[in-house]
Amino acid sequence: MTETSVIGAGTVVSGHVRGQGSLEILGRVEGDVSVTGNVVIGPAGRVRGHVSGAELRISGQVQGDLRGTLAVLLEPGARVAGDISGPRVGIAPGALARGHVQTDGEPALAAARAATPAARPMSPPVRPPLAAAPAAPVKFEAKVPAAPPKFEAKAPAAPPKFEVQAPGKFEAAKAPPVPAKFEAKAPLPPPPKLAPKPEQRRPEPAQRRPEPEPRRPEPEQRRPEPEQRRPEPEQRRPEPARAASAPPQAEFTPVRPIKQEPRRPPPPVVPVISKGTKAKKKKSHD
Amino acid sequence: MAGTVIGEGLTIEGDISGDEEIVIHGNLRGRLTTTDAVTVGGTAIVGADITGASLSVAGQVTGDVTASERVDIQAGGKLVGDIKAARFTIADGASFKGNVDMEV
No. of H helices and E strands in chain B? Predict the structure, then answer.
């Protein structure tokens, strides 16, 4: 009854092929193939459509889904673009597959181990999971219980880290940097008027002024002038100056005598034009 | 061996084309074109126009037949359709209905 059908190498079938019995495709089929028996697609066989059967043994090309009620075996040289499903799925080295592969059904377990001893060693290199496919149900059960405990362990561990890290880092990192910035900003406006503040900047400008230091004796002469002006600002700014630059003042006093040159005006002049004003002007013109 | 065999129980809905012998024991609906011999087995049911080098019918065929060499309807065979072939035989016990063009 169930006779083996053959679609020869020189034959092209444009349409659906379905029915009982086994089918061997050596030619081309442009359509779905659905049979109750086994399907063999030879090296020169090409199928553009879904293929379903008991055991599919593919050595040719298939563009479509493969569904084997017993097994789907991709031999070397097979090229499959489509989903593959069956209780047994074997992909031999040299076979190309692109698509979703799923092993399902139980009848394969016993038959798979006995029937595909040769296929297994071949499949592992391609996809380790495939080799384990027949045993998949067992492995999955084992893995499933193992996974949750890991998550539980990780979950509690993670929050404490965040709590500890967050406060520690934020307090330590944010608190100090912020005050530092404020201190730096606060002195910036006063420096032009106050002597001690420009000195605070001096460490930075010092990079520019390796030379000016020898000239500092002169600035001392001029400093009295800024000081005269400063009585007013000092009244306003004694607080910030003392808070931020109180220690620097002590240090600056010795420095002042060293500065002799009258270049004091320039340093204030530079800060007078707040940084960014030129850029703003340019931007405005532009 | 036949290049293509459509076994009993197998159904093809569509066109078959090729350059090799085709043997049909199953069902075919569509069109059959080949450059070689076509054999329709006793269990076959074919509803298709057939083009080939030769045709041997032991089953049921409905459709026009064009053969470059010959057409033979075996005993028990049934053919409904026009036939165009150089040689044409109808065995005793065969059924046939249609026009015959033997290119006289």
Answer: 0, 13
- Average pLDDT on B76-87 reads 95
Return the closest-CA partner of residue A198 out of A263, A286, A109.
A263
Q: CA–CA separation, B15 vs A193, rounded Å?
A: 99
Task: Indicate the SS3 state at residue A193.
Answer: coil
State the total domains in chain B: 1
A4, A10, A11 ranked by CB distance to B7: nearest:
A4
Per residue in A195-222, pLDDT tens? 444 444 444 444 455 444 445 544 444 5
Whether B83 and B103 have beta carbons less than 8 Å apart is answered as no
Contact A206, A246 (CB under 8 A): no
Q: Is A30 helix (H, G, I), strand (E, B) or coil?
A: strand
Structure tokens at A32: 């779905």
For testing contact with chain A, the best of B1, B11, B12 (most A CBs within 10 A)? B12
For chain A, residues with pLDDT lower than 50 are 108-207, 210-214, 217-221, 224-228, 231-235, 238-250
- The answer as to whether B101 is a domain residue is no
Q: Is residue B36 part of a domain?
A: yes
User: Is residue B21 within 8 Å of residue B34, measured between CB atoms?
Assistant: yes
Q: Which residues pair with A109 in a beta bridge?
A: none
Question: Is residue B39 assigned to a domain?
Answer: yes
Any domain includes B56: yes
Domain interval for residue B41: 4-96
Q: Which candidate, A60, A84, A59, places its Cα nearest to that of A72?
A: A84
- Contacting B with CB below 8 Å, chain A residues are 1-23, 27, 30-31, 35
Nearest alpha-carbon partner for A114 in A83, A78, A71? A71
* Whole-number CA gyration radius for chain B: 12
Q: Which site among A4, A12, A47 would you substitute to test the B interface, given the most B Cβ atoms closer than 10 Å to its Cβ?
A: A12
pTM of the model: 0.54
Nearest alpha-carbon partner for B87 in B61, B58, B53, B62: B53
Cβ pair A9, B20 in contact under 8 A = yes
B56 in the Ramachandran plot: left (φ > 0), alpha (ψ -120 to 50) or beta? beta
Contact B3 A4 (CB under 8 A): no
How many other CB atoms are found less than 10 A from the CB of residue A54?
15
